[in-house]
Design brief:
The complex is a heterotrimer of chains A (246), B (289) and C (325). With 246 residues, chain A is α/β, with parallel strands linked by helices. Chain A has one domain: 3-Layer(aba) Sandwich (Rossmann fold), CATH 3.40.50.300. Helix content of chain A is 40%, strand content 24%. Chain A has a six-stranded mixed beta sheet with strand order 6-7-8-3-9-10, with helices on both faces. Chain B is mainly α. In chain B, 74% of the residues lie in helices and 4% in strands. In chain B, the strands form two sheets. Chain B has a two-stranded antiparallel ribbon. A two-stranded antiparallel ribbon of chain B has the order 2-3. With 325 residues, chain C is mostly helical. The longest helix of chain C is centred in the last third of the chain and has 27 residues. At the A-C interface, α2, α3 and α4 of A face α7 and α8 of C.
């Protein structure tokens, strides 16, 4: 569904992302991992059109979308969520979701009812008429998902959706994401929270210092020395090996 | 025509120096407090009237009024920031802009009420004595203003660089919380900075009065030019304000020469629009997002 | 518009009572005064589209108002065009000026204070130009020939003028409501709240902002043309001056930016206050602006949602559970 080839970006003298490539098959949940500052969010912003890539291509459902504006990419069916959730503060939860629904439903009544339906699917039925600013962090994450779904997007790019959640909330959101995937959506998620990665991602890519260093199932990645090195530092992999043998 | 250009440039430089002086205060205030101070022009107008009344009723020569007016306006600026702007704006950037706009409305219209819209000038004997510079004849008052403006900019810079208060101001401008942590009283520092900015305007008034006119609307005219100067020179840059002020003075003068007197100011506003669109960080400012 | 509280209903009722009461006022001064206030209300409603719903505070709304007035005046005075055509041209001219300013400003990402300043600069450039060129009448302005009658869109009877204005204000408010509850309105509000999130949701934020400026310009131009047809004389200070730009934003902010009734209520309230002040202190030009400024400061500090927001807290209705579409 999503083919990213040789994406690169520099900011001044800093090479944020070099030659990154990944594939997201339709209906799968793919993770994008890596230590802080590895370039994961920059990849996302390039794929979603918020940043212009210096090199590389992005194809979505066979169509070349490199360099398109974010709103055009959204209209094609790919949407990105933000690490720090910003609901539209002055509006109610339902009105927030409706902003997403308006993309393909131009009539207000229709958009509001689609919003209601999506909200209920994500378990927000009771909160629809409350101001969005009154939601907890977990609620806001759900709202972000609901808004994204309301646009009718098929591929969702989630940027650290688990950040700031307690374990029980994580379990809830994991369940919701699985359910949405089963309904026919695809996910590419940046994630640090290992619990979520293990439970959700079928495969994952690991970025370190702007370069892709590994790709595989979470189980494979955890044992991959270069991945361990990236997260824990120089020589950590070797040390862990020694301890295991000792 | 070409023989008119040189005097126009010189006269533009003289006026530009005053623009620079007014802008120095504004850029200081913006660079530190990130406030676009709409009341700046009104304060200039107030200072002009103060110096005028000191001269007309007490016979105090405008240049001698400097030690009286500067501290008074420093205090006014301090109180304005600490007593009105900070408490009433609750921090929102748009609110601050609106509050300084409101302050300027109050000052301008009270001035209109008390002093009427009659144009006044101070007849100071020696102000229009001409001085010959490079073949052009310039009013003494303007030459003094030029010299003073060129002197004040470096003085202000030294103050910021070498005094304790100056360092405190710079610290607060760069990192407010860090400054708080090392014991700097941020509110006080903000108010001091605003006071200094206002004092600059008072100085500009003393230098301006001998060769200029005053009306309650004069503030509004200056405020837009001052904004343009600040943005062109780079928000927060003292050197930028000086260079930009001189440049704009020359632009205005040349526009007046080629397009006619009434269109002189257009050059300034067009420059303003262009700079805001293409390089909002100004000629010498740091790039901002 | 659905009132949320008894307070809001009371406020609207008071305004309506005043507006209809003017017909029965003992002195014609009331009607004249309210006519002025209503024209300002149209400018305020115009500002509200971009400044209220869009969060794009313009400090130079006179640029739109004056362009509408001048377009119509030039066509009528210099080319003998019929007043009604001038009317349409003025609205169109306002919209085009709005598009021009918006397209430039937003193309280069101006927002917040920078946007406010650039609109101010545009208004000033237009003011200087209008007073410097012959075809805009130069310093003396433009004067329409007195020719009362519907064909010339000139009012020979103050009551008719007043009624016409009431209708216009009602129509503009109706359009505002239509916008607010439309897809465009929802998108504009989203852009105000969080532009990046809006883009991610498929909104072409640049296009939306420019469209908002077009609508705002059309309403602003409309107000300018109305002024022209009522007073038959304009010059650059009157229609491009800062007083217009200031009045454009004060009414909505005090009445409630981003609401439908806010601009009208705020403008009416301020003008009544100003008029009252004038009676206490006659021969004081400009003192009403001092009052406006004080009220503005208080509103910014104590009434972030304006009068409408304040009234909304008095006797709030319970929220219904079902869909409020």
């Amino acid at each position: 569904m999503l083919e990213v080839r040789n994406l690169s970006k520099r900011f001044g003298g800093l090479k944020a992302v070099t030659d990154a490539s990944l594939d997201v098959p339709e209906g799968s949940i793919v993770g994008l991992l890596g230590p802080n500052g590895a370039g994961k969010t920059t990849c996302f912003t390039m794929i979603a059109g918020f940043t212009k890539a210096d090199e590389g291509t992005v194809r979505f459902q066979g169509k070349d979308i490199t360099g398109l504006a974010p709103h055009s990419i959204c209209a094609l069916g790919m949407i990105r969520t933000f690490q720090i959730v910003q609901p539209f503060a002055g509006l109610t939860v339902q009105e927030n979701i409706a902003v997403g629904a308006y993309l393909h439903h131009h009539d207000r009544r229709e958009a509001m009812s689609v919003a209601r339906e999506v909200g209920k699917r994500l378990g927000m039925g009771a909160m629809l008429d409350r101001p969005a600013s009154s939601l907890t962090i977990a609620g806001r994450k759900r709202l972000e998902l609901a808004r994204a779904l309301a646009t009718g997007a098929k591929l969702l790019l989630l940027d650290e959706v688990m950040a700031g959640l307690i374990p029980s909330e994580i379990t809830e959101i994991v369940g919701i994401i699985r359910k949405i995937r089963d309904e026919g959506h695809t996910f590419l998620m940046i994630e640090h929270v290992m619990q979520a990665v293990m439970q959700l991602a079928e495969t994952a890519y690991v970025l370190n210092q702007g370069k892709m260093i590994a790709h595989g199932t979470p189980r494979e990645l955890v044992k991959d020395p270069s991945v361990v090195e990236a997260y824990l530092g120089h020589g950590a992999a070797a040390r862990l090996q020694e301890e295991n043998h000792a | 025509m070409s023989s008119l250009i040189f005097p126009a440039v010189l006269s533009g430089l003289m006026m530009g120096a005053v623009y620079a002086l007014v802008a120095l205060g504004l850029t200081l205030i913006y660079g530190v407090l990130h406030i676009i101070n709409f009341a700046h022009g009104s304060l200039l107008m107030l200072a002009l009237y103060s110096v005028y009344f000191l001269y007309t009723y007490f016979g105090v020569d405008p240049y001698l009024a400097i030690p009286i007016v500067l501290p008074a306006f420093f205090a006014l600026g301090y109180v304005l920031q600490r007593g009105l702007i900070a408490p009433m704006s609750s921090g929102s950037e748009q609110n601050v802009l609106l509050i300084t706009l409101a302050a300027s409305m109050i000052i301008d219209n009270l001035a209109l009420y008390f002093w009427t819209s009659n144009t006044r000038t101070a007849d100071i004997a020696y102000a229009y004595d001409t001085v010959e510079i490079l073949g052009a004849y310039l009013p003494l008052g303007r030459v003094i203003a030029f010299g003073a403006a060129l002197a004040v900019a470096p003085l202000l810079w030294c103050f910021m660089a070498y005094t304790r208060t100056g360092s405190a101001i710079r610290a607060v401008a760069i990192e407010k919380r860090g400054a708080e942590l090392v014991g700097i009283d941020v509110n006080h520092t903000y108010a001091v900075c605003f006071g200094i900015g206002t004092a600059c305007v008072a100085l500009a008034a003393c230098l301006l009065l001998p060769t200029f006119y005053i009306t309650p609307q004069v503030g509004y005219t200056f405020v837009l030019v001052a904004f343009t100067t600040v943005v062109l020179g780079g928000m927060g840059s003292l050197l930028g304000a000086l260079v930009a002020g001189l440049l704009l003075g020359v632009i205005e003068s040349l526009c007046g020469l080629f397009l006619g007197e009434s269109l002189g100011q257009i050059g300034i506003f067009l420059a303003f629009i262009l700079i805001l669109l293409f390089k909002p960080s100004g000629l010498l400012g740091r790039a901002r997002t | 518009m659905r009132p949320q509280s008894i307070g809001q209903i009371a406020l609207i009722a008071a305004a309506l009572a005043y507006l209809f009461g003017v017909y029965f006022a003992s002195s014609p001064v009331w009607m004249g005064f309210t006519i002025n206030a209503l024209i300002v209300a149209v400018v305020a409603l115009s500002w509200n589209i971009t400044g209220g719903f869009g969060g794009l505070s313009s400090f130079g709304h006179a640029a739109l108002y004056g362009t509408g007035a001048y377009a119509s005046a030039i066509l009528q005075v210099k080319y003998g065009v019929n007043a009604w055509v001038g009317f349409g041209a003025g609205i169109l001219a306002g919209a085009l000026m709005g598009v021009f300013i918006g397209a430039l400003a937003f193309r280069y990402g101006l927002r917040g204070s920078y946007f406010a300043l650039v609109t101010l600069a545009f208004a000033e450039v237009l003011r200087i130009c209008a007073s410097s060129f012959d075809f805009t009448g130069g310093g003396s302005g433009l004067q329409l020939t007195l020719a009362p009658g519907v064909a010339n869109l000139q009012f020979n009877d103050r009551t008719i003028a007043y009624t016409a204005l009431l209708v216009v204000v009602a129509v503009v408010m109706g359009l505002t409501a239509f916008i607010k509850y439309s897809r465009f309105g929802a998108y504009l509000i989203a852009v105000r709240e969080n532009e990046d999130a809006a883009r991610a949701l498929g909104i072409d934020t640049y296009k939306i902002k420019v469209q908002a400026m077009a609508i705002s310009g059309a309403f602003g131009g409309l107000a300018g043309v109305l002024y022209l047809q009522l007073w038959l004389f304009i010059d650059s200070n009157v229609v491009y001056g800062s007083a217009v730009s200031i009045e454009a934003l004060i009414g909505p902010i005090i009445g409630g930016a981003g609401t439908i009734w806010g601009p009208l209520l705020g403008t009416l309230g301020l003008h009544l206050l100003g008029e009252g002040a004038k009676h206490l202190l006659p021969n004081a030009p400009g003192l009403n602006f001092v009052l406006y400024a004080i009220v503005l400061i208080c509103a910014l500090r104590f009434l972030p949602n304006g009068l409408v927001g304040l009234a909304g807290k008095l006797g709030t209705f319970k929220k219904k559970e079902d869909d409020n579409a």
